[in-house]
Design brief:
Length: 253
Amino acid sequence: MTQALEIRGLSHSYPPRTVLEEIEFSVPAGRTVALLGPSGCGKTTLLHLCAGLLTLQKGQILNPFQRPAVMFQQPRLLPWKTTLDNLALGLQARGVGRQERLDQAQRMAAAVGLDALSFEQFPHELSGGMQSRVALARALVLAPDLLLMDEPFSALDIGLKQQLQRLLLEHQAANGLTVLMITHDLMEAVRLADTILVMAAEPGRIVHRVDYPVPARLRTDAEVYRLTAELLRAPAVCASFEIAPPAPQESST
């Protein structure tokens, strides 16, 4: 039986407000599930619960994965450490020797497109895009079997965003990585996910699901645009994001 991250009957409150209500889904090994929804629907709370950063109030989270990693919305680099030292933090916490962790950090830094000049630079000397590359490399260098992503590409321009998305897809294909990501970007969800779960707010709940048979890495740009347009026509998606549904097309006779 394929292992999976299982969320069962999960509810969460910040009294007097119910943030999440009866959330249920699973993330099978090697797959990507995207939680898509507007601001305030509880996406980040749900991800933090899955990461063990919040105390579970109601429901179950069954996580059989042994090496989880988290990417936050901000890079969260330590300002007094160089790029390589930031990259190697998780390896240091695991007890990997200094030279070995720096060697692994350098290989991963190169894999995400960081040049040798940036290795000894501090975060304030890096552009926002380079900081995002460091954050992605810091997560991937740990060889995680589960990656939890909290809108890590949201602040990037479209070109850099697509570069990092491709890097993630390539790494996932090569290593069988399992991904749970949250986003409010419909096209990003379509570009990266095998399954999209659309959430609505007040309280946060899942109102729509889409499963794609074609792996994300094999979808062309044209396919991504078409699938995004289809997603925008779904009534539950329009209601969740409070956007007007598309006008019905007049039939030609």
